Amino acid sequence: xxxxxxxxxxxxxxxxxxxxxxxxxxxxxxxxxxxxxxxxxxxxxxxxxxxxxxxxxxxxxxxxxxxxxxxxxxxxxxxxxxxxxxxxxxxxxxxxxxxxxxxxxxxxxxxxxxxxxxxxxxxxxxxxxxxxxxxxxxxxxxxxxxxxxxxxxxxxxxxxxxxxxxxxxxxxxxxxxxxxxxxxxxxxxxxxxxxxxxxxxxxxxxxxxxxxxxxxxxxxxxxxxxxxxxxxxxxxxxxxxxxxxxxxxxxxxxxxxxxxxxxxxxxxxxxxxxxxxxxxxxxxxxxxxxxxxxxxxxxxxxxxxxxxxxxxxxxxxxxxxxxxxxxxxxxxxxxxxxxxxxxxxxxxxxxxxxxxxxxxxxxxxxxxxxxxxxxxxxxxxxxxxxxx
Amino acid sequence: xxxxxxxxxxxxxxxxxxxxxxxxxxxxxxxxxxxxxxxxxxxxxxxxxxxxxxxxxxxxxxxxxxxxxxxxxxxxxxxxxxxxxxxxxxxxxxxxxxxxxxxxxxxxxxxxxxxxxxxxxxxxxxxxxxxxxxxxxxxxxxxxxxxxxxxxxxxxxxxxxxxxxxxxxxxxxxxxxxxxxxxxxxxxxxxxxxxxxxxxxxxxxxxxxxxxxxxxxxxxxxxxxxxxxxxxxxxxxxxxxxxxxxxxxxxxxxxxxxxxxxxxxxxxxxxxxxxxxxxxxxxxxxxxxxxxxxxxxxxxxxxxxxxxxxxxxxxxxxxxxxxxxxxxxxxxxxxxxxxxxxxxxxxxxxxxxxxxxxxxxxxxxxxxxxxxxxxxxxxxxxxxxxxx
Lengths: 388, 388
Known about the structure:
- The structure is a homodimer.
- By secondary structure, chain A is an alpha/beta fold.
- Chain A folds into 2 domains: about 10-180, Rossmann fold; about 185-385, Dehydroquinate synthase-like - alpha domain (Dehydroquinate synthase-like, alpha domain), CATH 1.20.1090.
- Chain A is about 50% helix and about 15% strand.
- Chain A has 15 helices and 8 strands.
- Chain A has helices at about 20-30, 40-45, 50-60, 75-90, 100-110, 185-205, 210-235, 240-250, 265-275, 280-295, 300-310, 320-340, 345-350, 355-360, 375-385, and strands spanning about 5-15, 35-40, 60-65, 90-95, 135, 150-155, 160-165, 170-175.
- In chain A, α5 links the parallel β4 and β5.
- In chain A, α1 (about 20-30) packs across α3 (about 50-60), α6 (about 185-205) packs parallel to α10 (about 280-295) and α14 runs antiparallel to α15.
- Chain A is globular.
- β1 (about 5-15) of chain A pairs antiparallel with β1 (about 5-15) of chain B, so a sheet runs across the interface.
């Protein structure tokens, strides 16, 4: 096991109707002048935004609103939010939405306390401070409600890049599973895939003897695999929504990833896809992960066999562990297909002839991607081809 | 799933030699005048205390020392620590030791900011504030390094009682698995049993549809069951020590317990045992848990069968799930015995004729104990008898 630090100080407020306590928690965590950040009309139409505003008003907390966040959130609105925050002396950002809204809120929180361009932090600059961010989560997927990360697409070149820092951990996050019951099945499935990917990026590691995190990873995957079909079959099933929502947080606050090298190459390859085509992140991951697995499985057949046996219930082929490993990947592909995810480029609307562009935009050059297997540009190209 | 809050803001500093960073973290978390609290001579003899003091001195942090904490920590030393803290204007408590030392440090931290008797908080008073506590953990067991709890035995009547509150969460905890490599096997096994008990008190619940926490519980148990025999066979095996140490934190910071009713009757029955006989808490739990399980299993045979299949690898007897449930309990008893734990009163040095005293000291009266099955005084007496 590697040495590590683990710090997850977010106060989680989980359960039915708990968005009505938002004002109480904003006050507890020091907010007096809040920017409420959200996406499209659904939080308005559902009445959620009104309930949140009422809870702020009840605590005499001032607020300004900024809606319009798109999936794969863009730099333009971030710049606008930073401008508002500086002008209005905002001291607290409250994100009401899914991962895109939260990531946009985090970017605004960094930029509001910085004189330069916020994009500096998405191209490697160390994050030292940010305004406090809190979230009211409406989509179980990105795990941004408990994570240090934010992913933004810059409109200049459609570059999709990530920033990370402890200052980006939300101070509190309200998780009410009821809010996710109205999602279309496609979005629920994309979210489940994203969570599974967050776990698998951590699971496939070269670090030896990390049984505790292996087991936690497997537990989260088993839960998502069991609960997602129930949520898709009956969108109002609170219990499956609740299990999925908490699993999504656990999948990405790093309790499943400490003490081990992590990979993240599938995420990076997907970022190029959703940057170019503006497809849902989860859908892109359902295409990229099986391709990556097929390409790298020989690096550690026993680990892929463990994944097949413990997560997918495959029987171990002791004569030929590779059979078991391959069966696990097949079962995963079948699962993705069964919940309505694409597993090939064509189903996603991606094109084989764009592969050189995807590889070029990534800009790997002589560097490598990932840690389980260090992928060259040539490897990346081959993995994209396996996904066609 | 029940509504819940989850808040675990402790900064964990995990790995080899990381106690040398104690001074840096005390400074980061605002300590300027520290009470170092510890137990017997082992932290002195091993040089650990000197390394910790050197790291404080390197940051120009003042400190006072108070050693002498016993297993099942007593009120007398707590009163002494509170006196020192008030007199010396201590602003930070640093516990160097296992659960007993940490629990004693937490009690001092509450009392130092309170004009009345600290025992008030162990008999029901709400904890509003405490001095910041940090820990350098030397025994994997109690989980106090990441928990809200503290258990103290009052010398007036040998009453063993618990206090809980967010203010008792350590601000940081250093977990260096190397520090546990010198423990006698008996203590390592007691620690493993304590961790398993922390998980099982959460696992046996009447709350339906808590798959995510079920799976996390099972993952922690599977890890402890796999890694403990390795640590006992080769006490210097760092990797098993590391897995056990992190499992002990995860077992008790409540990530495995949120959203579900918890039981805690076995812990309460054990507290009377270790209060009266001063036996190791883990050893008492190894005796009480199987007895409790045998007594309550019919309340939910399917849950006990799930425990047997998923945790102990039993084959499900679909014709007769009770067989499977019973087999799981037997396998657990066999496991405890295999790691050198007692599983009966006689092995513990407890006496059947003391059962009326144990029941009386608990003082249940007309109240009930636990939540999975609400136990009356009569039930408690019968469970103690099953443990004879």
